[in-house]
Design goal:
The chain has 259 residues and is an alpha/beta fold. It has 4 helices and 9 strands. A 7-stranded mixed sheet has the order 1-2-6-7-5-3-4, with helices on one face. A two-stranded antiparallel ribbon has the order 8-9. A hairpin with a 3-residue loop joins strand 1 and strand 2. Helix 2 packs across helix 3. It starts with a helix and ends in a 9-residue tail after the last helix. Bound molecules: zinc ion.
């Protein structure tokens, strides 16, 4: 009897974890791909504007300014529509990015560039600093999980999905037949700067194994190697050690000990 109860507890825990892991299989799936007449979503949650201000923004090209004190301050404005509890979760997502990195989120006062966090439809962000006000959408309740929140802030800092890396085929197999037909483009590769860091299966920017699955079968499988059974894709709840290194490298900050 005890064993059965334990099993139930474990499976409940696992399914909760699974729901968290699969950022791109759950919350973001409900996102409409067209936000408005000029803005659409790439890879499921990266907002792209076709207006005159649009620019292709891969890593280095759209960085937030670095202060003379060595920190990268990202000003934010939080919609008053969020409850106290929701506000706390969003701040936890910020703390997860700040810990061990030079990024600091500060409440918006007068800064020209800032993120405007709003409960619009779906979870999405623009890529990198666009200049001026830029929306990060965190719909309640689906997007209000620390992992999803940190993931969207990572986009705002300039990072694309880990499996979009140009060299990803050395590390994962994309199972094209298992992907929803109209979401195939979410699995494109991009010429990104991987900052000389290793491919990171545990990155908060990695899709889950079942992202955009049309039939419950995996859509991304780690390439065969000795430990491939132990590899979990899209850990989802916190930045990995390499994610933090990515931030510090992209923004030319020192090592972890400096913060
Ligand atoms: Zn994303």
């Amino acid at each position: 009897m005890e064993q059965i109860i334990l099993l139930c507890l474990v499976s409940t825990f696992l399914s909760a974890v699974h729901a968290q892991v699969n950022i791109h299989g759950t919350a973001i799936l409900t996102t409409t791909r067209i936000i408005d007449g000029t803005t659409s979503l790439r890879e499921g949650d990266i907002a792209v504007s076709s207006g005159r201000r649009s620019k292709v923004c891969f890593a280095r090209s759209c960085l937030w300014n670095k202060s003379v004190d060595g920190h990268v301050y990202v000003a934010y404005r939080l919609s008053p529509d969020y409850s106290e509890m929701e506000t706390k979760l969003i701040k936890k997502g910020m703390e997860s990015v700040e810990k061990g990195t030079c990024v600091r989120f500060v409440p918006w006062t007068h800064q020209r560039d800032y993120v405007d966090i709003q409960p619009k439809s779906g979870c999405w962000s623009y890529l990198g600093a666009r200049g001026g006000r830029q929306t990060v959408s965190l719909q309640s309740p689906d997007c209000l999980r620390v992992g999803v929140i940190s993931h969207e802030f990572m986009h705002a800092l300039g990072f694309v999905h880990e499996q979009s890396r140009f060299d990803r085929d050395n590390y994962v197999t994309i199972m094209w037949p298992n992907i929803w037909r109209d979401r195939l483009r979410n699995f494109e590769k991009f010429k990104t700067d991987s900052l000389d860091l290793p491919y990171d299966y545990g990155s908060i920017m990695h899709f889950g194994m079942y992202a955009y699955s049309q039939d419950g079968q995996p859509t991304i499988i780690p390439k065969n190697n000795q430990n491939s059974k132990d590899i979990r894709l899209g850990k989802g709840s916190a930045l990995s050690r390499i994610d933090k290194m990515k931030i510090n490298k992209l923004y030319k900050c020192g090592g972890k000990d400096d913060y």
